[in-house]
């Protein structure tokens, strides 16, 4: 059974994106066709986005590997001898993957790159994802990594074995967030 995809609060990510790109709230308000005070409330978490606004924000804030530094990060992930992969922190789209991790997949890596891996999440992964807002995962001062034990799934395409897992939040050069997913043992 597929875990429902949780919708993270995008306010902290929007604020980080604005700061990296030196965009004032008033200009962000123009981009979203809302008032500046609405941007302020989104960023502070006192107002939720409407579905259309959320879709626009997700498109803006989804991690992309555009800059040279981001390509270098992807190369490090791809060349790592350890079982790890890099996903967008918001959409769970696969951005990069070590060859050791790719050998675990029941499909060619090329068919999984750019696609969300959320449908393969175990109940333990879904539970940790649900806790991220409570621990301030997307806040600048939050701990950058989280370790937990995950159970198994029944997937042949992206099998997950009982293991110790570490998530590390990384900010890409454009201010978007990626998550390094490592199997520790």
List keywords for this structure.
alpha+beta, 185 residues, disordered N terminus, globular, 5-stranded antiparallel β-sheet, Beta-Lactamase
Question: Can you describe this structure?
Answer:
There is one protein chain. The chain is α+β, with helices and mostly antiparallel strands and 185 residues long. The protein folds into two domains: 11-61; 68-183, PAS domain (Beta-Lactamase, 2-Layer Sandwich), CATH 3.30.450.20. Helices cover 37% and strands 17% of the residues. It is built from eight helices and five strands, in the order αααααββαααβββ. A five-stranded antiparallel beta sheet has the order 2-1-5-4-3. A hairpin with a 5-residue loop joins β4 (163-171) and β5. α1 crosses α3 and α2 (25-32) packs across α3. It is globular and about 50 Å long. The two termini are 25 Å apart. The model is unreliable at 1-6 (pLDDT under 50).
